[in-house]
Specification:
The chain is of the alpha/beta class. The chain has one domain: Rossmann fold, CATH 3.40.50. The chain is built from four helices and seven strands; from the N terminus they run E-H-E-H-E-E-H-E-E-E-H. Strands 1-7-6-2-5-4-3 form a seven-stranded mixed β-sheet. Helix 1 packs across helix 2. The longest helix has 14 residues. It is globular, with a radius of gyration of 14 Å. The two termini are 19 Å apart. 34% of the residues are buried.
Length: 149
């Protein structure tokens, strides 16, 4: 496990950008943390690095947002586990796709073995991110992660 100290939202977004550059296709990224922990901010940095889109809204109400080149952002905050079956999981778990998931605990047990788990904790401006890779693609992404950026 790798622990990274973050001193505010911009550092969280920068970590997201660094991850966006380090991660290759075929990886599920699970983001855990309380409301306001920075999950969406991290996703926005990741999406910006991969697509050039400077502001990506949270899919809290749309649930799933698709981006070019097999990038998907899923927010399960408003769902229960049974609702996950409504998505085309075969497409978003494609071998070359990258899936960002906020609130993955709403669907425990349904995630690929090949994944990167990120837990964001802290209060105010001081936050930390704990990154743990499961599988070779996740370990390789952590190895490529240039931090501090």
């Amino acid at each position: 496990m790798r622990r990274i100290e973050l001193d505010g939202p911009e550092a969280t977004r920068t970590l997201g950008r660094a991850l966006g550059q380090a991660v290759q296709g075929g990886l599920c990224i699970l983001l855990r943390g309380e409301l306001g922990a920075g999950k969406t901010t991290l996703c926005q940095g990741f999406i910006e690095a991969r697509t050039g889109i400077a502001y990506a809204p949270s899919p809290t109400f749309t649930l799933l947002q698709a981006y070019p080149d097999g990038l998907y952002h899923l927010d399960l905050y408003r769902l229960g586990q049974a609702d996950l079956r409504e998505f085309d999981m075969e497409e978003i778990f494609a071998p070359d796709a990258v899936l960002l998931v906020e609130w993955p605990e709403r669907a425990e047990g349904d995630w690929p073995l090949e994944r990167l788990e990120i837990r964001l904790t802290g209060e105010g401006e001081r936050r930390s991110a704990e990154l743990e890779g499961f599988g070779s693609a996740a370990q390789e992404a952590l190895g490529r992660l240039g931090w501090p950026a």
